[in-house]
Design goal:
6-stranded mixed sheet, 6 strands, 7 helices
Length: 199
Amino acid sequence: MDYAVTVYLIRHARTKSNNERRYLGWVDEDILTNQNLPVLDSRCETVFGSDLKRCKQTAAYYFPIASYFGDVGFRESNFGEFEGKTYEELKEIQQYRNWIDDPHRLAPPSGETLEEVTKRCMGAIARLPKGLTRYPLILHGGTIRILLVHLAPESSGFWDWHVSHDDMFTLQWTTREAFEEGKRCTSLSVGPITANMNM
């Protein structure tokens, strides 16, 4: 089947905080340099994603000649005072447990609710330029989950999705109108990034 629009959701490469299982939201941390990241497409000219440097740096490896367009709307959740902490460091704090139980309505101190993150992330997808057929997006685990919840063919929950640094989600729409209207995609596949070289 021919598809009018394809969106690739790719999580940024690992950072020190990712490896230490710390909450990493708006802190602008570099990716680790010892990851041997592949070139996914040496001809791709345009890539979109979060404005944080871990996404820009990842794009420079995967798409070496592409211009990168970052949007603050695609940022990871703002974890506020929980930023940089681990579950073990937070698990006895009641405010943390309340947030874990209801992240859609409750926010970390000085942070965001999942509802607020969803609103800005969906706004960013709507701001993508019209007229392209392929949209490679370099994002964060949380923003990829949000897009899958709202754009995957079937209804799902935020935690239903496992989003690793090594996989790529490919979403496809049969018509441009359906994509631009924010409708669910027609086709969804996921596979290792290394299986998608020369996309």
